[in-house]
Amino acid sequence: MVTKAYGAYSGDKPLELMLIERREPGAHDVAIEIAFCGVCHSDLHQVRGEWAGTLYPCVPGHEIVGHVTAIGSAVTGFAVGETVGVGCMVDSCQHCSSCEEGLEQYCDSGFVGTYNGVTGDAPGHTLGGYAQSIVVNDKFVLKINHPEEQLAAVAPLLCAGITTWSPLRHWNVGPGKKVGIVGIGGLGHMGVKLAHALGAHVVAFTTSENKREAALDLGADEVVVSRNAVEMAAHAGSFDFILNTVAASHDLDAFTSLLKRDATMTLVGVPEHPHPSPSVGALIFRRRSIAGSLIGGIAETQEMLDFCARHGVVADIEMIPIQNIDEAFDRMQRSDVKYRFVIDNATLEA
Q1: 322-344 pLDDT, tens digit each
Q2: Which of 43, 142, 273, 349 is most buried by a 10 A CB count?
Q3: Cα–Cα separations (whole angstroms), residue 203 to 158, 291, 315
Q4: Half-sphere exposure at residue 200, Cβ-oriented, CA atoms within 13 angstroms
Q5: pTM across the whole model
Q6: In terms of domains, do 25 and 133 share one?
Q7: Per residue in 22-42, is it b (16+ CB within 10 Å) or e — as a string?
Q8: 224 sits in which H/E element
């Protein structure tokens, strides 16, 4: 079936309106009319060819919220009219150890991305959520229980939310834990909100003094300007866990020195250039760890969505019409958004 979408035919061209094909729903498929789609830095990098291997035409978008319009004959978990979401994955091998444990993001064969993933559907790769509709295997569709008026702000939970939730849960963040969140952007602002909702004592790290009040408003108990050596030294050896959301290359030692013995700093941002090599001594002499984490599995994404619905957690967003996407990309590169753009997909009709 044909649907309107916004995408690009090459990395040096702006996004434009195009018609794309979606498969007819198979036995295990869910057809979704997309209401909102969040805008992620990954969208920009992929569609503009800044990451190797972009397949064109490229239609980005993996923070999808919409409503079910049809279900396959074997689908039992969803009904027409339900509010649902689709995140960064639409398939995986479903039989390796990671998939069997509900950690499809670590699939031995590599998960199939919501866009730019190899598929049997035309044009041979997946096309994402900057579109009117999408058809997805029911194993990769998520239930959304937030009220209708919050649905646009739910969209970024499907990437920014789960990217921060997964490590917070894996490293047992909760009451009695002192947790640092490095960076107050699209990912970091969700990290602060989620860590706060989980009951931790949250310290936000920013390079900008002018983000102090904003971080407190998000739920941080304290804010540290990381360029201020006195403020940093006051927290030496005191953190149970640090979530580092910064994607730019920077000195990791400044933060590992703040960890307690046996504590971990987890990285979720991939820098364009490698971080300077961390001091091994700072790790060895306190049995500290530096780890990484990638989005989250379907089960933990559903857990996160349910938790956020119960606690009223959503992203801070700026809504845009699809026609303004290139301007939004440019603003996003300048960090000129608090904290996530979301597309009103109804504007595809304009």
Answers
A1: 999 999 999 999 999 999 999 99
A2: 43
A3: 24, 19, 19
A4: 28
A5: 0.96
A6: yes
A7: beebeeebbbbebbbbbbbbb
A8: strand 222-225
